[in-house]
Write a structure and sequence with these properties.
The complex is a heterodimer of chains A (288) and B (262).
Chain A: E1 4-18, E2 24-38, E3 42-46, H1 53-61, E4 68-73, E5 76-77, E6 85-88, H2 100-104, H3 106-111, H4 115-128, H5 144-157, E7 162-166, H6 174-190, E8 194-199, H7 202-208, E9 211-215, E10 222-227, H8 242-263, H9 275-281
Parallel strand pairs in A: 3-8, 3-9, 6-7, 7-8
Antiparallel strand pairs in A: 1-2, 1-4, 4-5, 9-10
Helix pairs in contact in A: 4-5, 7-8
Chain B: H1 2-33, H2 45-58, H3 60-92, H4 94-107, H5 116-123, H6 127-151, H7 155-163, H8 168-205, H9 212-221, H10 225-257
Helix pairs in contact in B: 2-10, 3-4, 3-6, 3-8, 3-9, 5-6, 6-8, 7-8, 8-9, 8-10, 9-10
Classes of the chains: A alpha/beta (288), B mainly alpha (262).
Bound molecules: adenosine-5'-diphosphate and magnesium ion.
Adenosine-5'-diphosphate is lined by residues 15, 17, 27, 29, 47, 49-55, 218 of chain A.
């Protein structure tokens, strides 16, 4: 049990919402969600949009409360915000009135680390994400990719064991995204953390992860988990290898039914020849 | 070539704003000198300039403008201070919002000038009454914009505050207030503009004492159009300066926050 950093057992979550007639309606978002995250692994959660990925992330981060089941972190039931977890949000969520350096240092500042010490640490992480020379810029002066680097540095500076990342690269252009994927792997290689990475891109999940967990559509649960036995370090060319393409097909097969149902496309149409066009319909970027 | 074009285009646009006022003054000068109008109510530009000089040299202008500005600034400071406190309470405390919010929303619907009869009965026609009126003018936009700014802090910034375990106080000071700052500043900006308009309104409606508004009344009561025109020009210039000053601060703030200046 000890090797499992995070254990979710039969986790469930539902929202109460008002329907047209003003009655409260229960919207189950997660149901029977089981997942075990190993210490030090890079695990991606792949699922159609609206299936509850962010909801799971928010529960894990302590920002939302589960309505049923069990969630253990380091063998302990999760209570409130866990300071051993860093969160990288879907938007970059930088504080616009703080400089890059002060943004990176914000967690340490709240923790009560002295000014000289926290700025030194912040500089270290600034360098790690390759933003030397941008310390005194403001977020709005940076590109999307650079902002996400700052957000990653901010989470790492807090020195968490686990990094939770919710579609961190979704808003970036293809080139920037691939650069950041490689950067993230490099950082993960030097600062061994457990990473739970949420994405809706097949390629991204396969390229980065040790294991990929595929979710069903809402109410979400883990449908299938498979290992990605691709050697590390992983270089960009990996994406064109036969092994990579094989994994991509495999992941797509797990995901296909979940996506096509949502777009109301007849699943039968997803033959091998035209799966790429269906994939595009489902909002999935397959291939580069 | 295209950039040269853009520059000449830009500089011609710069002076375009002057075309209308200069034409009006020229026309005015012509009208009063060519004897197009026999009425004593049309005075010449030179007469207005002479009156302006007389007002300034005799010290009447300085007494009037300093009385008006003192009033204006006192009202502005009292109104914005109360407005900031009230706006923060409304924006930060749900209990306070539920208790006071509905009353305030009704209160702000009352036209500002509808307060004049009540104020004059309670506070007379003197400086106290005027400052109360001005404070009221400054209060409303500050409360509304402060409260709005605090309510509309982006949820992801609040999540950052929770993830990094900001205390309630740290969240307010370190996230909510800075995030609301542009909106709060819009409130202050409006308060500055409204309170100057209200200063003239108060001097005009609560007639007593000195002030630019009183200069205007004097002029119209004695059919001295030169004095009226002089007063109008001063009111316009002061309003314009206050506006320009507020704008400089607003630009700075927007640049810091990465908001494109309008
Ligand atoms: N506060 C909420 N109230 C009601 N429903 C919500 C709320 N937040 C999210 N949902 C619903 O929960 C589902 C899952 O949302 P989310 O976890 O954000 O999906 P994902 O991140 O996988 O795209 C969505 O269908 C969404 O409509
Ligand atoms: Mg999401």
């Amino acid at each position: 049990m000890a090797e499992h950093k995070i254990v979710a057992r039969d986790l469930s979550m539902e929202f109460q919402s008002l329907d047209e007639t003003g009655q409260t309606e229960r919207v189950p978002v997660l149901e029977g969600f089981d997942l075990q995250v190993r210490e030090g692994e890079f695990l991606s959660i792949l699922g159609p949009s609206g299936c509850g990925k962010s909801t799971f992330m928010n529960i894990l981060a302590g920002l939302a409360h589960k309505t049923g089941g069990e969630l253990l972190v380091d063998g302990q039931p999760l209570q409130g915000i866990n300071r051993n977890q860093g969160v990288v949000f879907q938007g970059y969520a930088l504080l616009p009135w703080r400089t890059v350096l002060d943004n990176i240092a914000v967690g340490l500042e709240i923790r009560g680390v002295g000014k000289a010490q926290r700025l030194e640490t912040a500089r270290e992480y600034l360098e790690l994400v390759g933003l030397n020379g941008f310390a005194s810029r403001y977020p709005h002066e940076l590109s999307g990719g650079m902002r996400q680097r700052v957000a990653i540095a901010r989470s790492l500076a807090y020195n968490p064991d686990v990094l939770l990342m919710d579609e961190p690269f979704a808003a970036l252009d293809a080139q920037t995204r691939e650069t950041l994927q490689s950067e993230l792997l490099r950082i993960w290689g030097t600062h061994k953390k457990t990473i739970v990475f949420i994405t809706h891109s097949l390629d991204e999940a396969i390229f980065l992860s040790d294991r990929v967990a595929v979710m069903t559509q809402r109410p979400g649960r883990i449908k299938e988990i498979f290992d990605i036995d691709l050697a590390r370090p992983r270089l960009p060319e990996l994406r064109n290898t036969q092994a990579f393409i094989h994994y991509r097909q495999r992941a797509w097969e797990a995901l296909r039914d979940e996506v096509t149902d949502i777009t109301r496309e007849p699943a039968a149409a997803a033959t091998h020849q035209n799966w790429q066009s269906i994939a595009t319909l489902g909002g999935y970027r397959i291939g580069v | 070539m295209s950039s040269a074009l853009a520059i000449s285009h830009g500089s011609s646009r710069r002076y375009r704003g002057w075309v209308l006022p200069i034409s009006v003054v020229a026309l005015w000068w012509l009208a009063s000198h060519m004897g197009w109008s026999q009425s004593g109510l049309l005075v010449s530009p030179e007469k207005v300039a002479a009156t302006a000089w007389d007002q300034i040299a005799s010290g009447k202008f300085w007494r009037a403008i300093s009385a008006s500005l003192t009033r204006n600034l006192s009202g502005f400071f009292i109104g914005t201070t109360l407005g900031l406190v009230l706006g923060c309470l409304l924006g930060l405390s749900h209990t306070f919002e539920r208790l006071v919010g509905p009353s305030f929303n009704t209160f702000k619907q009352i036209s500002l000038f509808a307060w004049i009869p009540l104020i004059s009965v309670w506070f007379g026609l003197g400086d106290v009454a005027k400052v109360v009126f001005l404070s009221l003018a400054a209060l409303v936009p500050v409360v509304v914009n402060t409260c709005d700014g605090l309510r509309n802090v982006p949820p992801n910034l609040l999540e950052v505050a929770r993830v990094y375990r900001f205390s309630r106080w740290q969240t307010i000071v370190g996230v909510m207030l800075p995030a609301a700052l542009p909106s709060i500043f819009t409130g202050l900006y409006l308060a500055l503009v409204y309170s100057w308009l209200a200063t003239i309104g108060a001097e005009y409606l609560l007639v007593s004492g000195e002030g630019i508004g009183n200069t205007l009344i004097d002029g119209s009561e004695h059919f001295m159009m030169d004095l009226v025109l002089f007063g109008m020009v001063v009111i316009g210039l002061v309003g314009w300066s206050l506006n320009a000053l507020a704008r400089i601060f607003e630009r700075r703030m927007q640049r810091l926050y990465g908001i494109d200046p309008r």
